[in-house]
Specification:
- The complex is a heterodimer of chains A (176) and B (789).
- Chain A is 28% helix and 14% strand.
- Chain A is an alpha+beta fold and 176 residues long.
- A 5-stranded mixed beta sheet of chain A has the order 2-1-5-3-4, with helices on both faces.
- Chain A is globular, with a radius of gyration of 17 Å.
- Mean pLDDT of chain A is 91; it is low at 161-176.
- Chain B is 30% helix and 23% strand.
- The relative contact order of chain B is 0.12.
- The model of chain B has no long low-confidence stretch (mean pLDDT 97).
- Classes of the chains: A alpha+beta (176), B alpha+beta (789).
- Chains A and B meet through helix 2, helix 3, helix 4 and helix 5 of A and helix 1 and helix 20 of B.
Chain lengths: 176, 789
């Protein structure tokens, strides 16, 4: 096999140093070496976006980067988005707006949405749709995903956002 | 007050782990000593395998073993087809790993077993397979001629021919009378292009052969059916197989299958004695996971000059692809009962010829037979309206079943229990602004606006709640259509619900909790729903055909009712009253006419301790129920699409989409709405975007998401959805099912709308998907042939 290279990457606030094959994709490194299985693989052509993570705060498709390219960088995955046991507003918004069904596109969708809102904190519906163009969902028809991003942008997400399943008591009036 | 969970927009219990990355999809599983598989697949659509040299692959670093078809010929059996639609149905043997020949590009010819997924993938390139290419048959009309055979050994491409004739069945008049005496005869051929389910989670299987039972984790919709079929196919006692469907990333019928890859992973695990994992790439998934639709529909509709339909004749060619999968052959039959849709046709004949081709096999895809049928009839109703020069809604109204005519036995022999097409249509028209849009359409036509407006209508119904076991038996399906549930009352009074209906995004955990919370009068949070593991949920028939709530949900309610009956006996004993005097409401058992009462939790603990129970009472309240529906359920609705067509570029845009669905009583409006949205997206995708395209050699051209156009967010509009509620009278809840409605209804609405925009320019039909190039070509052709008025 090809020679390996030592990399140091900060992932979800923890620093890791590993020997990796140069051909190892970042997503494979995250899933197979670090056990960060929250980040998922849905295709092999960079179309679906299920593997979207943040590299130094900006969304990237982790199937389109080699792990060695992340050397010296900081990666945030869906597993590192919640802080101090509190869901990030987008996570809460996805829950509140029923923006997920099977959940497979969800990690990538949330990470891409976070990047989108960082660039454009108050997007229009069309800007949200365009901003999510690189992420495929087969369950929701996108309507509730768009609503969730809008809710997160508008700050209309419930603040009762803990990681425990108890948050599921919340009742919503439904999504128009 | 009684808790009313049913009807409440509860947020989903399922979400917490999915939004935080604590998911349990099959590919996330790692077991000690686990080996990884990669498949060697045929690049040819039809070929003899003359030799396989795996020696280089076997000595590749990290490779543990290579399995060929010859290696496992004695163990692998033939993958199952559970629906022999006629006694003389022909089907080729279906080995998981091809032995002598391959019949579609992508078929597995060998399996690499290695210490890492990368090592397995590397070794795929090193397997030297020699093929002798054979001629391919790809087109249905060609297949019908039997000149080139997909399976030369079978001697024909025809698998079976299945006929329904209302004259013979006694459900209507003979079709010949209607066609012969027709005042108006509409004759058309529609093409249902081949689609790919394209669930987001690629299929994945992990098999642990250590221990007493073989444990199979798989991205499947059908853990129970898979367990039985793996056992039968591979000759393993069923009791030695445990199947777990953990988090499953979508199915849409595409994971309603017993796949070669699942069987191979079991074979590999047994061969090595080690846990084995196989996860397909997306390219493999698009190429080799089963496809859907792929039919040619030759249809004739006869009517009076007043627009009353007198007969419908359907002649179908259905593409099986290269093999018969689990229900491949039955998919067109599910459509056979739906061509007459919501209408009162007096005569109907359906004939379907199932044909083999050298492509991936087809099978269930969201709607399975019913979208095809609905498309044909809704296109025909528009064609009839055009022929008569009347509004397409008027033609539909003239022929549909009136709300006061239910229950209504249709010409296809089904009894529709309830419906109100007038109400759904009226609501849809109001939300849509039908008259205003018609006026705008007229203005744009008059001004020769380059962007023309069209209005597409689809009034639909479907048969859901698959299915009454006796009906399935009459249709030669191998299994029943019941569902099983168990309600367990824990000593603390908390409830565990075990359901045989295995969810993969549908929200069963939330909806079933609502059902049981209402029925037993316990808090929603105190109900835990378990599913998807044959060791926990011993019996079940899984999730497909919009059956979960209308069949599985009813089993849950029946089990809950048995719990109440048991608890009443204990309550009577505890309160020293007679059983007849015990009343149950809001989670409390009380003695009629007194203020004495006992809560379910107290009874649960008494039943658990067993210290003081009536003589002969078994110390627990747990109850099982198996529910077999007496009839299907028939959701319906009216969908309206305002379509803009740029006549200079062929670009199609959805200006407005309104749908009013009647799915009966709704348990959770949030979940129902989500199902409708997702269904619409898939139906619209058939109309405008998706098609599995093969080249002349039978190679899939649309082999990645670059070419197979699953719509993304900017490709779809904001939908306006609403409901009417006409309860089903078949089940106690009044629910009808919602999983497939959007997909079934939206395809014809969109295509009718596109055609309505350009029909005045001489365009008569456009094959799906109505891509810009197709629409533009149709407009150009109309110009050439003098279609422009």
């Amino acid at each position: 096999m090809a020679s390996s290279k030592t990399i140091t990457v900060e992932v979800d606030d923890v620093s890791y140093t590993d020997n990796v094959e140069p051909r190892l994709l970042l997503v494979q490194y995250l899933r197979e070496r670090l056990g960060k299985t929250g980040t998922l693989i849905g295709c092999d052509t960079t179309n679906c976006g299920a593997c979207t993570v943040h590299l130094d705060g900006v969304s990237v498709k982790s199937c389109t980067m080699f792990a060695v390219q992340a050397d010296g960088h900081s990666v945030t995955t869906i597993e590192g988005l919640a802080r101090d046991g509190k869901l990030a507003p987008l996570q809460q918004a996805f829950h509140q707006c029923h923006a997920l069904q099977c959940g497979f596109c969800t990690p990538g969708m949330i990470m891409q949405s976070a990047s989108l809102l960082a660039e454009n904190p108050h997007p229009t519906e069309q800007e949200i749709r365009d901003g999510l163009e690189g992420n495929l969902c087969r369950c929701t028809g996108y309507q509730n995903i768009v609503a969730a991003v809008q809710a997160a942008a508008d700050g209309t997400v419930s603040s009762n956002s803990t990681l425990s399943a108890d948050s599921d008591e919340t009742e919503t009036a439904g999504v128009a | 007050m009684t808790v009313t969970e049913v009807g409440r927009a509860r947020l989903r219990k399922e979400d917490a782990h999915l939004i935080t990355g604590r998911s349990r999809y099959t590919d996330n599983i790692t077991l000690p000593g686990m080996l990884h598989l990669a498949m060697v697949r045929s690049p040819f659509a039809h070929a003899k395998i003359t030799s396989i040299d795996a020696s280089a692959a076997k000595s590749s670093p990290g490779v543990v073993a290579v399995l060929t078809g010859a290696d496992v010929a004695a163990q692998q059996g033939s993958l199952p087809n559970a629906w022999p639609i006629t006694p003389d149905q022909k089907a080729p043997a279906h080995p998981a790993i091809a032995v002598d020949a391959v019949a579609f590009a992508g078929e597995v010819v060998a399996c690499i077993i290695a210490r890492s997924a990368a090592a397995a993938r590397d070794a795929v390139e090193l397997v030297d397979v020699s093929y002798e290419e054979l001629p391919v048959v790809l087109d249905l009309e060609e297949a019908l001629k039997d000149e080139v055979l997909a399976h030369p050994d079978l001697g024909t491409n025809k698998s079976a021919t299945w006929v329904f004739d209302s004259g013979e069945a006694g459900t209507g008049k003979p079709i010949a009378e209607a066609l012969d005496g027709a005042e108006v005869l509409i004759e058309r051929t529609f093409y249902q292009q081949r689609l790919i389910p394209a669930f987001m989670e690629p299929r994945s299987t992990v098999v642990d052969p250590t221990g007493e039972q073989i444990t199979v984790w798989s991205a499947t919709q059908i853990p129970h059916i898979l367990r039985l079929m793996l056992a039968l196919t591979l000759g393993i006692p069923e009791s030695k197989v445990r199947v777990i469907a953990p988090d499953v990333g979508g199915g849409f019928g595409g994971k309603l299958q017993v796949t070669p890859e699942e069987a191979i992973t079991v074979l590999a695990a047994r061969h090595t004695g080690k846990p084995c994992k196989y996860t397909e790439t997306r390219s493999e998934s698009l190429m080799a996971a089963h496809h859907g639709r792929a039919q040619v529909q030759k249809v004739k509709l006869s009517a009076t000059k007043e627009g009353i339909v007198t007969g419908l004749d359907v002649h179908l060619l259905a593409d099986m692809g290269a093999y018969l999968g689990l229900v491949t052959s039955g998919v067109p039959i599910l459509g056979a009962f739906m061509y007459n849709s919501i209408y009162k046709f007096p005569a109907y004949r359906f004939e379907c010829t199932n044909l083999f081709t050298n492509k991936a096999w087809t099978d269930a895809y969201r709607g399975a037979g019913r979208p095809e049928a609905t498309f044909a009839i809704e296109r025909l109703m528009d064609e009839l309206a055009v022929e008569l020069g009347v509004d397409p809604l008027a033609v539909r109204e003239k022929n549909w079943i009136k709300h006061e005519e239910f229950p209504f036995t249709t010409v296809a022999g089904l009894e529709y229990d309830s419906g109100n097409y007038e109400a759904a249509t009226a609501k849809a028209l109001e939300l849509f602004g039908y008259d205003e849009l018609r006026a705008e359409q007229a203005r744009r036509r008059e001004s020769n606006d380059p962007v023309q407006l069209g209005i597409g209508i689809s009034t639909f119904t479907e048969m859901c709640g698959l299915a009454p076991s006796r009906v399935l038996g009459a249709l030669s399906y191998a299994a029943g259509g019941w569902e099983h549930a168990q309600v367990r009352v824990l000593p603390t009074g908390n409830i565990e619900v075990v359901t045989g209906s295995s969810a993969h995004g549908q929200g069963h955990e939330t909806a079933w909790s609502q059902l049981v919370a209402d029925r037993l009068g316990v808090p929603f949070e105190n109900v835990e729903v378990l599913h998807g593991d044959t060791q926990i949920s011993q019996r079940g028939l899984d999730t497909y055909g919009s059956r979960s709530l209308t069949v599985g949900g009813m089993a849950v309610l029946a089990a809950a009712d048995k719990v109440i009956e048991k608890a009443k006996i204990v309550a009577a004993h505890m309160m020293e009253a007679s059983e007849e005097d015990i009343e149950f409401a809001d989670g409390k058992f009380s003695v009629k006419g007194t203020d004495q009462s006992t809560a379910l939790g107290e009874i649960a603990f008494a039943a658990f301790s067993g210290h003081n129970l009536p003589d002969g009472f078994e110390p627990n309240l747990d109850s099982d129920a198996t529910y077999d529906p007496q009839n299907f359920s028939f959701p319906h609705g009216t969908h309206l699409a305002a379509m803009e067509v740029d006549t200079e570029t062929g670009r199609v845009t959805i200006r407005k989409y309104v749908c009013v669905d009647d799915v009966g009583v709704v348990v959770n409006p949030l979940i129902v709405e989500g199902q409708v949205h997702g269904g619409l997206a898939q139906g619209i995708a058939q109309a405008l975007y998706e098609e599995a395209v093969h080249d002349d050699a039978g190679t899939l051209v649309t082999g990645s998401f670059v070419d197979y156009l699953v719509p993304s967010a900017p490709d779809l509009p904001h939908f306006t959805t609403a409901r009417t509620e006409t309860p089903s009278t078949t089940n106690q809840l009044g629910a009808k099912g919602v999983g497939e409605a959007g997909t079934i209804a939206s395809t014809p609405a969109i295509v009718n709308g596109v055609l309505d925009a350009v029909r005045h320019l001489g365009v008569k039909d456009i094959k799906m998907p109505c891509s810009p190039s197709r629409v533009w070509a149709a407009l150009e052709e109309a110009k050439m042939t003098g279609g422009v008025q």
